[in-house]
Amino acid sequence: MIRRRADIRSQEVREGLPNAAVDPGTGPASESTPRGAIHARVARSALAWPGTGLASLDLQLQLVEANMDFFQQFGGSPRNRCGRSLLDLIHPRIREPIRQQFTALIGSDRRHFTERVAAPSAHGHFFSGTLTGIATRDLRGRTEAILVVMKPDSPSTRRTN
Hints:
This protein is α+β, with helices and mostly antiparallel strands. The chain has one domain (5-152): PAS domain (Beta-Lactamase, 2-Layer Sandwich). It is built from 5 helices and 5 strands; from the N terminus they run H-H-E-E-H-H-H-E-E-E. It has a 5-stranded antiparallel β-sheet with strand order 2-1-5-4-3, with helices on both faces. The radius of gyration is 16 Å and the shape is globular.
C-alpha cells in the first residue's frame, strides 16, 4: 500500500511527535550527521505546532540553547536560563520521574520518550503540556545531546486547578 506523504504527516502530527524526527536514516543527503538530521526534522515539524518550545540539553540535562517559544513558556532569557538544569524548570513533584526518563534515554538505545508535565510559567501560573525528550546520537550510537520538545496544552484543554 502506498501512502501519500500528506497522510503520513497528518498521522505523525496526531501522534504528537513526527516519526521522522527520531529516524536519522531518512534525511536529505545534505544533513550529514544523525544529530543534524534529527534537529532539522524536528525544527521543520515545529512549524506545524505554534508555541512549541524547542531546547537542546547536554548529558547533565543543562540547557544549552532554546528557541524563543521555550523562553516564553518558562520565562527568563538565554542569559539566565542557559547552563541551568531543565529539571529546575518543572514542577517539583515530577522532577524525579522526568529525571529517570532522561537517565534511561541516555543510557539505552531508546530514541525518545513523551511525558505529561506541569511547570511554572513566565507569569507565575502553572501550565501543562507534553515534554518529549529525543536522544541525538553520534555515528557510533552514543548519546551526545538531548533535544526537548515542549508542547503546551491548548487553552481549551488546560486545567484551571
